[in-house]
Amino acid sequence: MLDNRLILLFDGLDEVKKKNRQSCLEAIGRYGVDAKRRFVITSRMEEYKMVEKDAPVNLQIEVGPLTIEQVEKSLAAMGHEQPEAMRLYFALQQDPLLREAVQTPFYLNTLQLLFASGKTWGDFKFTAETLEGR
Prior knowledge:
The structure is a single chain. 42% of the residues lie in helices and 6% in strands. It is elongated. The protein has 6 helices and 2 strands. The chain folds into 2 domains: 1-62, no CATH class; 68-123, no CATH class. The chain is mainly α and 134 residues long. It has a two-stranded parallel sheet with strand order 1-2.
């Protein structure tokens, strides 16, 4: 049991200047010497591969893009308990750009939050015709 201890999230190792990434990982390693301290480090893969030594962690996980089939299946399964899931599911049927966006976990989570506010796809007025524009 963690007894309500914090798990620190070091988000964005890839956003640390290239010359400072290794020393940043070493500092996190010193922090993590105490086994009671738990933490997560996030980074884009290409930038992470550029560091000299791996991060001082017990486990590494690579999260890849989701498939639209995975997203739709998950939303449909959640739909009975979470109405926002079905609102997002139906929006995916209407918009190819949205279907592309939800394959990135960050955008999927963000869209779930937007739809949890009770909005439907018709409430959003997009003028941009590209994913980056939206």
